[in-house]
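Q: What would this chain look like folded?
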Amino acid sequence: MVKRTNSEAATNGNGAKKARTDGKKHILLNAFDMSTVGHLSPGQWKNPKDRSAHKRKLSYWIDLAKLLERGGINALFLADTYGGYDTYEDSLDNCIRRAAQWPVTDPTIPISAMAAVTKNLAFGITASTTFETPFLLAKRFSTLDHLTDGRIGWNIVTSWKKAAFKAIGLDSPIEHDQRYEQADEYLRVLYKLWEGSWASNAIVNDPKSDTYADPDKIREIHHHGKYFKLDTRHIVDPSPQRTPFLFQAGTSTAGSKFASTHAEAVFVSSHSPTVLRPKIDNIRKLAQENGRDPSSIKFFATFTPILGRTEEEAQAKYEEAKKYASTVGGLVLFSGWTGIDISRFGDLDKKLTAEDSLEANKVTSILSAFTTTSKEIPEWTPRVVAERAAIGGLGPVAVGTPATVADELERWIKEGDLDGFNLAYVTTPGTFEDVVDLLIPELQRRDLYPKHFDQGLTAREKVYGAGNASLRSDHVGSSYKYDVYEEEPPYVAVDE
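A: My prediction, written as structure tokens:
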């Protein structure tokens, strides 16, 4: 039974939380981690205060989940990758040597253990639409949603790394816009399985007739599309949310169109909120054109806090982190994300532009963000990248007291029209401990973070309010629900 403990759980008629009348909104905070030694601050594994190298132990994840639960963190957002970064020096060697997101283990495996020691923490798991069939992904996420009582979100990504494609036997990645076209069909197949295959009353559990589930209430899906073909019933009965809460990362033209159609939350990254704002405005505009409430899409930005009880303490933590930072590791990540092999530049003060990206495979939105200037970064050069890349993954790093960092979060929310943040760490669990013990009390004092939390909510209810575990009625996935489902005709190729 869901216990409601504050007025923010109230919703409007379409399933979204009612807007506050004081002009403020509670900030949504996710802890941002990755099942790897060097996430966004490579080199910190050398820091004796850091436990990044312990992530292959289940105790790391259990302890982290308990900490985040204590702080009322919305979700643990887990990045993932399917290949190493080999743009820098045209080699994977420094990616491996510097532990720049290498090695990487599967992020889904520890989820059940973390769910077992928490009741409210949600989990956002990155998985690609490129490397496995929709049926297999649907089965895994339905299972996780069952085992966590509905606390699962999916960060939808399309894969682009050469190394990852070679690992599965393909010579080159799929072209950027085609990946999103494929991903759109992928999601529609999943909606058919998650939303359209099972009636809500398909499980009858009738011992007298020896009937556990009624086959007449479990539809066989026949999808014959451009990229995918399947004829099957979904093998897992409906989970608490049916469709996991849908995150998406990517703000290119194709990515923005995809987000405006499918995403319930969008993960964005930049050094400045003014760089993000037009991209966020565009996705909200596209969503409205699709018949969606634009405010229902929640935007989370990367943000790395370095907190101290005094400014001096925070600065000391920052200086200590710089001692262990791997500059080369940061350059490996930057080069991989943007397609700019920064090792080629002899002039450290040469301005970097999008034309310097000679690699066809890259994250288009990140290349745009880190070749676009702002008042924070008036010019991108190899020297600037080297100074910033090793701590925080080129995203904003705020150093100071809880009040100082909270001021910066408020500025980003206001200037960027954001809803929350994926808080990255410098050291783990140290950064997250400081967030829980120092930052959240300051946000609560400002009435920017709830002091009381509804218990036992699904991942979607934690965003939209109690009673809203299902997809919103204005979301495209709702058009595939069992009671309204209509089979689509097979795809027919058209000669161009």
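Residues 274 and 416 are 6 Å apart (CA to CA).
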